[in-house]
Amino acid sequence: MEDYIKKISIFSSGNVLGQFVRSVVVGGIASFVDIGIYSLGVIALGIHHRISNILSFISGLIVNYRLSREWVFNQKVHHVKKDFLLFSAIGVIGLLISDILLFILVDRRVLYFILPFSDSGLVKSAAKIITVVLVFFWNFFARKKMIFSS
Q1: First to last CA, the chain
Q2: 3-state DSSP call for residue 10?
Q3: In angstroms, what CA-CA distances link 82 with 30, 34, 64, 85, 102?
Q4: ∠ CA 32-50-56 to the nearest 5 degrees?
Q5: Model confidence at 1, in pLDDT bands (50, 70, 90)?
Q6: What is the pTM of this model?
Q7: DSSP string, 3-20
Q8: What is the pLDDT of residues 107-137, one digit of tens each?
Q9: Domain range annotation of the chain
Q10: CB atoms within 10 A of CB 83
Q11: Can you point out the beta strands (E) in the chain?
């Protein structure tokens, strides 16, 4: 009975919904790292927002891989080099999507029309949050299918 409850639990790594819920938690942790480093770079250190995006992305990617492998997908067999390279390639595609969205939202000033009286730091942080949410869906489903499907 206990095994059955574990299998149907939304927090179980044995079903897609459970993996998705766990991935949201892991994504939240990785996003906290990503957004924190991005904001530190842009606001506190004055680094260009797209350079800061790359640095924060790499930090979030490392946190995300480790937690996804061990907790979200409960991967028993590890091909660390191969899996991390594929995980990273999917993440790089996500980075490109993120960078394109930041370009549109910040450089093309789309968010400045939506948030006209906001300062530049707030607009850039809002743009980053929007891109993180959108790229999350790409990352989850691509990684589930291509890496952690077994």
Answers
A1: 24
A2: coil
A3: 21, 24, 16, 5, 30
A4: 30
A5: very low
A6: 0.70
A7: HHHHHHSTT-TTSHHHHH
A8: 999 999 988 888 888 999 999 899 988 998 9
A9: 15-146
A10: 19
A11: none
